[in-house]
Amino acid sequence: MGPCILLLVMCVGLVVADRKMTVAEKLKEDADLSQFLALLERNVVANTSLHYRQMTLFAPTNEAFQRYMGEMDDNLVLYHISNLATTLTNLDYAISSELDGNPPLWVTRRHDAMHDDIYVNNAKVFISRSYQSVNRNNKRQVLHVIDQVLQPLQPHGPGSVSSPVYSPNAYQFLEHSDVFNIGQHRLRSFRQKVNQLQKSKVFNAEGRHTFFIPVDEGFEPAARSDLIDEKVIDGHVIPHHVLFTHATPDAKEFETLAFGDNVKVIVSFSTTMNGKEEITYVKSNTVAGDAKHSRGVVLADIVRANIPVKNGVVHLIQRPLMVVDTTIINFLKEKEDGPLCKFYEVLMDLGPNNQFYTELTLAKDITLFAPSNEAWAELSVQNIIRNHQKLKEILNLHLVRERLPMDAIIHNNMNQLPGTIYQAPTALPRKYLYFNILTRGQNQTLTVEGGGVNATVIQPNIAATNGFVHIIDRVLGVPYTTVFEKLKADPMLNITYNLGKRQMFNHQLNDMEHRYTYFVPRDHAWLKFQIRHPSAYKALFREDFGYFTKQILERHVIRAGRAYTVSDLKLLANETHPFVLPTSRDPLRLRVKESDKNYYVEWNGHWIHVFRPDVECTNGIIHVIDEPFVLESDIRATGASERLNLPFLVPVLSASYFLTKLFEN
């Protein structure tokens, strides 16, 4: 009998050891889910379901609970449970929760280049931590671990039953918004416009949609309400997509209900950091407008994001979309923590009603290229803006006295003559902005250069009543690269940079102990030279011709204790009196003139256009020119090098040298 009992015990032990843990046991084993387990055990319905029913659990980590700022009543756990066991593969676009009214949990599959992510509402699923098993009653259960606590739409106060509806849709939420726990926000003004314009059906629509609802504070001034019509209401709804902020890629565009034959409005999200705080904006872009609806972007803070409703998700926003009713200066000062609040602070450091402030206020048709908040944090920028005279120049470099939406800049760039790019005069005399369009697939990125600094437009086309604002990622006119780094990065100067690799010519241009003035032929200048002198151009790139290439480049560089702007050179060397500058090669004898707002330098009897003057760098200045400083003797030498190989050429040149010396004696 004894051996039989022992055998039975051993068999039972083997079965237990081989049995897969239940979800309940998995929760107890994982210390990172202890707060969720405690919440679950306090709720009788959830705890009973865990032991007796089929279910899916979405379990936030302990860190997620520490970040959670919402109410934590015992029923919160029911919003994290569904009564069907659903694996990640089988998750549809929505799954019903066990909270009263069975409000849906919205599922998003975000496809990125390297991997796919899955979100439930705004919470990301840790795919590798999903687990499935059966409980003691042989009911299948699935556990998904998520990085945020799911926050349902709840009425005021714990345990309140004053809400007239469970699981409201977007219109029911809007109609009864005072009942729900949405903080201090009030939605009466927008609700009044929706009812007045009989647009309730838009928010009542079944399916899955995204709704943007402006709060009452966004209806100041009072006249703003008069600008909201049926089309503007439609511009606050994205049909057939449920877009939670973390689950939606930045800058991805979605058509709104206001995307028709005449007016076309798209909406996208953008996220930025203000210190350690993450701020999410929604922007409407009216790409085609009419007399009532201006083209351009309207940017609005999301003041309360990701409110789940029966037919999608609602985001409360700081102001209405599509409505263009503020000047540029009012946009800058609209919010203390707005996307350009640092720009406004810097502007006001010049004193109230300074000249630049006045122009932004009174001008009718302007475009402001405004550096982002992060751009002003650069140390080099902080050092230079303490000089108010320099700051005035820098600010004027960011202002163009005409309306320049992005599509106009692209159009102007496309219509330039070969070898030229579009440039726009700034409010700083004789200073221009130069534009370049980078195209990757369907995406176009606009870059702008001013004062030697190349910046990317990170938010174009913010519309104002008196023009446009483009947010850029750097402060123009405050150099941050050496001459070498600028030469290497500028797509217009590739050929000169590659020639400078010969004999390590470029390396000196990183030196911070000297100041360089470099007349750099742009690529178009070299290509014109190639057409006229193909053999000489080809020889410049030959390894055995590196010494001669270096000599030619040395003629373009002045190394001294200071760098020279074109204005400096014009004072020293006017049209009648040339000025001699020392270079590493030959003395550079120049004259400078200005004609039709363009500069020209005269070298070797020939006037050469300065295509981009005064490209400032940390250790000097680059002047981009339209023709290289190449002598006829250089061309003859390079042509000869094509016909004679170097081993043969050196003895010939040496013999010629000694014979000359012999006859001199």
From TrEMBL:
Q: Where is the signal peptide?
A: 1-17
Domain of life of the source = Eukaryota
Which residue ranges does the record assign to the FAS1 domain?
A: 20-150, 167-321, 327-476, 480-629
SUPFAM superfamilies per the record?
FAS1 domain
One cellular component term (GO) for this entry is: extracellular matrix
Pfam families in alphabetical order: Fasciclin
What are the protein's GO molecular function terms? cell adhesion molecule binding
Q: Does the keyword Disulfide bond apply?
A: no
- The question of whether Signal is a record keyword is answered with yes
Q: Could you give a single Gene Ontology term from the biological process aspect?
A: extracellular matrix organization
Please provide the record's keywords in A-Z order.
Answer: Signal
Instruction: Name it.
Output: Fasciclin-1 isoform X2
Q: What phylogenetic lineage does the species belong to?
A: Eukaryota, Metazoa, Ecdysozoa, Arthropoda, Hexapoda
